[in-house]
């Protein structure tokens, strides 16, 4: 009881609009590109050719951490390729899809990436590999608990080609009067 009362004020709900989300995503990929020889091009797309004006209710710090962890999970120092980011409104949520076209990953790895059994300790670098998606899952869980039920995260391998899509949903800001 006391821990949930403590967590509620610590979870800072804010309306984050499309421009802020795109800037946060760009910052995350630019920071990752600068830390090594990675050359990832960020492409925002919308298959439906509709206006993309949206706002989500989220904790801004946690959202930035989510974006950093999703990108960090798949971009290494020698990655070259594209990260396609798409979003669409679905009922009371905004669904985001991050498609990494340069990632070659096995289905079994995808099936296990949100579970602690997938963690590997790298003794040379003294770091835990695979924790990024567990952290991302927990951040989505926090939004599910503190904002609105229905937030999800999943991973899917592209059929017949390299690439992985990480999809997650966050609550839409119902008070946002922009067209979605």
Task: Sum up the structure in keywords.
single chain, 180 residues, alpha+beta, two-stranded antiparallel ribbon, 29% strand, globular
Describe the structure.
By secondary structure, the protein is of the alpha+beta class. Helices cover about 35% and strands about 30% of the residues. It is built from 5 helices and 9 strands. The chain has a 5-stranded mixed β-sheet. The mean pLDDT is about 85.
| Count, helices | 5
The separation of the N and C termini measures 38 Å
Largest sheet, order of strands side by side?
2-4-5-9-8
Q: Main beta sheet, described? A: 5 strands, mixed
C-alpha geometry? globular
Strand content: 25-35%
How is the secondary structure organized here?
Layout: H1 2-10, E1 14-17, H2 18-34, E2 39-45, E3 55-58, H3 60-74, E4 80-90, E5 93-100, H4 107-112, E6 120-122, E7 127-129, H5 131-146, E8 153-157, E9 164-171
Parallel strand pairs: 2-4
Antiparallel strand pairs: 1-3, 4-5, 5-9, 6-7, 8-9
Helix pairs in contact: 2-3, 3-5
